[in-house]
Design brief:
Elements (H helix, E strand, L loop, with lengths): L1 H8 L7 E2 L3 E9 L7 E6 L5 E6 L3 E10 L2 E12 L19 E6 L5 E5 L4 E5 L7 E2 L15 E6 L5 E5 L7 E6 L5 E7 L6 E7 L5 E9 L3 E9 L6 E6 L8 E9 L2 E8 L9 E8 L2
Parallel strand pairs: 1-18
Antiparallel strand pairs: 2-21, 3-4, 4-5, 5-6, 7-8, 8-9, 9-10, 11-12, 12-13, 13-14, 15-16, 16-17, 17-18, 19-20, 20-21
Length: 287
């Protein structure tokens, strides 16, 4: 793996390229106090339905309403508790923030992987109603500062599971890959750029990794961007950067395909505020 790691570290020497290749095609604000703190998102292959996780330990399932391909509504169909490895509901265990589910990746066979930020760990679920399966932590999971830990999960086209931290270690953002015997390894590091944090990740079928990043500007405005990288180090491109305060605290991203090409659906974490909607935002790749 030495050659692969070197290739991933080299891009840290340069800033990413910038390209205006994403077209905003719709937004929808879900006004509800039932669904709060949505952080991880997985959209079905046809774009019609979704599953998400909330940072208080809930699965959220729903459907999209689109008219002429434009997002027009969101219907919540089910909200259920994430079940921990001990068989008990995660939302009941607030001590140590065991419930802080942030990243979500779902395999074609329905197996789900959820990364938790506080008490940084990753659990596997054979289906959404099943109890979690324990995965041994990587030692550096504990090197991240509190509330800056495992924020994003993604499954590559070959089925490999990756997770990413919100903030980097001194070397950069570790690329945590689940390897043989379900042990995490670090394949290299992604560079931090312009103080943006990684909050969501998803792979396209061609192996490109789409990262949702954001930062809080002077404590007042969220600023979001979408970055595309190749884990062999061959690409690091900023596709879109939002204006300060243009959208809310976007944290989840899912990539899927419609008849016109690649679509990206994003969702915001309203931080449990009844005054902030859960915001869905959709882009189309135009290149």
């Amino acid at each position: 793996m030495l050659g692969r790691v070197v290739a991933l570290i080299l891009p840290m020497l340069a800033s990413p390229a910038v390209a205006g290749e994403l077209e905003l095609v719709g937004t929808f604000d879900l006004e509800t106090e039932t669904v709060i703190g949505v952080s991880g998102l997985e959209v079905s292959a046809d774009g019609a339905s979704f599953v998400a996780v909330g940072d208080r330990g809930w699965w959220i399932e729903g459907r999209f309403d689109r008219r002429g391909g434009i997002l027009n509504g969101v219907e919540i169909e089910n909200v259920s508790a994430i079940i921990g490895q001990d068989g008990f509901p995660v939302p009941a265990r607030r001590v140590g923030d065991w419930s802080d589910a942030e990243g979500l990746a779902v395999a074609p066979d329905g197996t789900a992987w959820v990364s938790f930020e506080r008490w940084a760990h990753v659990w596997r679920f054979d289906d959404l109603g099943a109890a979690a399966k324990w995965i041994k932590d990587h030692p550096t999971f504990y090197d991240h500062s509190d509330n800056w830990q495992l924020e994003a999960a993604a499954i590559a086209p070959d089925g490999t599971v990756y997770v990413f931290s919100e903030k980097p270690l001194p070397e950069g953002f570790p690329i945590y890959r689940l390897g043989a015997d379900d042990l995490w390894v670090i394949d290299g590091y992604l560079p931090e750029q312009d103080v943006f944090a990684i909050v969501g990740a998803d792979f396209a079928d061609d192996g490109s990794l789409y990262l949702l990043e954001r930062k809080l500007v002077v404590g007042l405005w969220w600023q979001n961007r979408i970055r595309r990288v190749r884990l062999d180090g061959s690409e690091d491109t900023v596709l879109w950067t939002g204006e300060r305060g243009e959208f809310g605290n976007l944290e989840g991203i899912s990539v899927w395909q419609d008849e016109r090409g690649l679509r990206l659906t994003l969702v915001s974490d309203n931080n449990g505020s009844k005054d902030e909607p859960t915001q869905f935002v959709e882009f189309r790749l135009t290149e």
